[in-house]
Design brief:
Elements lengths: L2 H11 L8 E4 L1 H9 L6 H8 L4 E4 L1 H12 L9 H11 L3 E2 L4 H7 L9 H13 L2 E3 L13 E2 L1
Parallel strand pairs: 1-2, 1-4, 2-3, 4-5
Helix pairs in contact: 2-4, 6-7
């Protein structure tokens, strides 16, 4: 990532961005925003709430949400599929489709772990040239992945 990209990222992280951001929401960020969790930073709350920004969500995040609910690690106010459908309508997100290119890229990423969901989400952000909104320490700090916290 060049210095221009770093300065863009820094401005976005400070909430002082001038042009709309294209942001892929990591699963926990999507959930924290929708559930009103105070773990979500004020900066990310502002970025997600802004009508100026373009928000994206991977089907992998929907899959992870359903698994968390099925395992009892996530409490929702309705059946998991009903809840997901409701909130996909409420929060305006674009579907970041999983493609052959993204799947192949997921295996080429230099990540210190093999978590398939993280790999698919990171590869999606890279392939679609989106900033990844995440606080997952296993996904931040790479020069090839633009992140927002």
């Amino acid at each position: 990532m060049g210095s221009t990209e770093l300065s863009k990222r820094s401005k976005a992280e400070e909430g002082g961005f001038n042009k709309p951001l294209r942001v892929l929401l990591d699963t926990h960020i999507w959930l924290w925003y929708l559930l009103g969790d105070n773990k979500l930073s004020a900066n990310l709350q502002k970025i997600i709430a802004s009508q100026e920004n373009e928000l994206w969500l991977s089907p992998i995040s929907v899959w992870e949400t359903l698994i968390l609910a099925e395992k009892g690690r996530l409490e929702l106010d309705s059946k998991p599929i009903t809840w997901v459908k409701k909130y996909l309508r409420i929060l305006d997100v674009k579907e970041a489709r999983l493609t052959y290119e993204i799947v192949m890229l997921s295996r080429q990423l230099e990540l210190p772990h093999q978590d398939p969901a993280d790999r698919f989400i990171a590869a999606t952000a890279v392939h679609l040239e989106l900033a990844l909104a995440t606080v997952d320490t296993r996904l931040v700090g790479f020069d090839w992945l633009s992140t927002l916290q």
